[in-house]
């Protein structure tokens, strides 16, 4: 049971980071970023190239390797987020039907990006060195590995830091204003373009963090971003696009559902269960769990 709970927590943490990035982007600039899978893969390959560089220098473990993997993965995905923004956001933001145009543009980037990863890195999966070591902590009849514990702690700390930054910094307040009322924020002088690119960079960095830590188990491949994108969309829709509390709760539900399904039924049934969950939530709560939380506060 302990191992099941830990597995669910790890999945919720990783998928939650991707889903929150999707929600941030939608709530602030009104773009559903279907290139999030491309951004996810970019972070994994950036970390892989960093690991290869250090390995060629004779460094295979230690803080330089571990911290560098996390930083390089986040930086690679942040740059990929800015790249997506320069193609799908800046040229289209002030045009009619921006949401539809942005949806098509990000989908095109995702499809083309997958083929580019395949050309440059080949179809083979690329492993990453262990970030948190290979040890294990025994708890009763079960236990938790260092990689699982590290993933949960790092994801929680990063999300907390982002939320605190949004509440206390000027740039963070501009992001919150965009999420609450984009037109009103623009009227009072908040730059839609600058803030939008900042949002894409931050959401990309969160996705890159998830990519590096998930690669500890699933490795990096040209299509490694497909599953996180799919689950991230499910979580963001179930939680209510733009709602951080709703997204966190939805991530916990989805992580637990995936862990239970994979353990007691079959891994192949996981997509059906996850889509069933989001359909049920949206049937009874069209605004998602975030809308339910807002109603309770009111």
Protein model, in words:
The protein has 298 residues and is an all-alpha fold. The chain has a single domain, classed as ABC transporter involved in vitamin B12 uptake, BtuC, CATH 1.10.3470. Helices cover 76% and strands 3% of the residues. It has 12 helices and 2 strands. It has helices spanning 2-29, 36-56, 63-88, 98-121, 146-168, 170-180, 182-187, 192-218, 226-239, 244-264, 270-284, 288-297; strands at residues 136-139, 142-145. It has a two-stranded antiparallel sheet. β1 and β2 (142-145) form a beta hairpin. The longest helix is centred in the first third of the chain and has 28 residues, at 2-29. It is globular and about 55 Å long. The two termini are 37 Å apart.
Topology:
Blueprint: H1 2-29, H2 36-56, H3 63-88, H4 98-121, E1 136-139, E2 142-145, H5 146-168, H6 170-180, H7 182-187, H8 192-218, H9 226-239, H10 244-264, H11 270-284, H12 288-297
Antiparallel strand pairs: 1-2
Helix pairs in contact: 1-5, 1-6, 1-8, 1-9, 1-10, 2-3, 2-4, 2-8, 2-9, 3-8, 5-6, 5-8, 6-8, 9-10, 9-11, 10-11, 10-12
